[in-house]
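batch job 7 of whatever, protein = Nitroimidazol reductase NimA, pyridoxamine 5'-phosphate oxidase superfamily
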Amino acid sequence: MAATPCSRPDIGGGLLLDECMADTTSPVSEIPEDSAWGYLASVEVGRIAVSAGDLPEIFPVNFCLDGESIVFRSAPGTKLEKLAINEHVVFEADGWNEEGGWSVVVKGLGALITDEEELARVKRAPLLPWIPTVKRNWVRITPNRITGRAFFFGPEPAQD
């Protein structure tokens, strides 16, 4: 039996900055793909960007990870309408504290989960709507590319 999606590690508020920036003097550092999944797993909210026609749209969503994919719930509306026209999406999540922050961007394909076995499994995830609406649709983002950056906060350097 496959694992239930959505287990979240306790990584101290979602920041693994020391891990990815230990060997650099730059205030910005690339997050390796394998570490990017840990960052994503540490937060509950991200943003999905969808596009069809001339105007892209971006929406906050609460989400969870299912292996190396992102799952969220949605009521009927713009997100699902645009996904039906164009499955290419961008997803972003981030986190920060007083020392620094991070951002992970996932580019991939979004699709409704329609397979009954898969749907039954993801429905066991503790992924509840934040607002009092019925969200019967489950969407999976399958990544084609995942990138991330971590950064330390500080004053602007002197300009030459």
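notes: The chain has one domain: 28-152.
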